[in-house]
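Margin note from the TA: students keep mixing up input and output lines. Inputs are the sequences; the output is the structure of the whole complex. Example:
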Amino acid sequence: EIVLTQSPGTLSLSPGERATLSCRASQSVSSSFLAWYQQKPGQAPRLLIYGASNRATGIPDRFSGSGSGTDFTLTISRLEPEDFAVYYCQDYDSSRLYTFGQGTKLEIK
Amino acid sequence: EVQLVESGGGLVQPGGSLRLSCAASGFTFSSYSVNWVRQAPGKGLEWVSYISGSSNVIFYADSVKGRFTISRDNAKSSLYLQMNSLRAEDTAVYYCARLKSSYGYSMDYWGQGTLVTVSS
């Protein structure tokens, strides 16, 4: 069973700052199937990044993803007020299907 | 415009049953695999079940295997989740989500969710 561990649990930053969120897998995963989602209170998750580094349709270029193997990163270059939310990483594997990280809450400092 | 609209949630007693529905529009439903994903109050996301476009491939999370049944009716562009033997730990918002194979099977569209509460 694979475990995705996100850190930090909570990140406190100010608008305009850079945010770096980490997702670490307990074993190597394919970067082709690593995704990131954003979820705001009372809303459904929204796909941000797929294939570890590809922005989904309509996602601003301040969001970027990187990484491979067991270590992946979501970076938000300059935080906008609407970016404060919870972020989840997710892995897909054809045998065990879907695994989510526990989430990182990005809050306004 | 792609839309997924869940319905069927509500309050049910432990051991009871509920059937969730997800109505899809704005795309060729039969061409896409779909997931059910749930989120307990104040908790993270948990994958529940997967069904391929033609219903020939189905998977369940261990936590619901043997109790939940996923199905779809492509003629009606609808997805279903039959939930039996419900437990308190099944209390959650249930989302249906479309999978995009060209996006590494990530979930590119989600419904707004339907709340299931299991309590006596």
